Amino acid sequence: MNLKITPRDKKFLTVGGVFLGVYLLAVWVVQPIYAKQKHVDQTILNKIQFIQKYHELLNHDSYYKSKKIANERARVLLDKKFLNETQPGLAAARLQKIIKGFALQSRVIIEQVRVEKTKEIDQMPAVSINMTLRSSLRNLSEFVYRMENAEKFLVVEEITTQRINKSNPEELKTRLLVSGFIQNITPRPTGPKA
Fold first, then answer.
1. How far apart, in whole angstroms, are the C-alpha atoms of residue 14 and residue 9?
2. pLDDT for 147 beyond 80
3. Which of 49, 51, 111, 177 counts the most CB atoms within 10 A of its CB?
4. What span, in angstroms and rounded, lies between the C-alpha atoms of 184 and 78?
5. For the purposes of burial, counting CB atoms within 10 Å of the CB of 35, is it exposed (0-12), middle (13-18) or buried (19 or more)?
């Protein structure tokens, strides 16, 4: 059997062979190389994202350190607001000393002082002092102002004022109940009671 191939058929076979060769080259060589390169690119992108996240965490480390320092400063300032003593009797004595200092500065006469039982105000232990004062209205207001702006956190819970002398309305007799707070050193159990 003798096949005669015309020059036109030869051109079609050559073009078909070249097309088939290019197709096989694209499917078997170029496509796997492209897929492998795409996989490598994705791996590189994943590693870049991992490094960026790692740097973000490192940068947040300084943020958290600054927050920790700020919290420590706030803790120190808050500690200054409480009476330093942890025992109620000593704390009451310290509160009395602070109040007597304010009374001297404000020219207020303390006639009577009575220490009340320790109590809790908003779940914080507090010592209270009930006292009777003699002063003018101006001196009393200065005394209360000094207590409100003291370094320690003091609360005037009750105040009752009356005139002593009808001829001198500025002379007052005042009863005050003042409380100062103690830090709660022993933590309370937060779980359910057994």
1. 8
2. yes
3. 177
4. 13
5. exposed
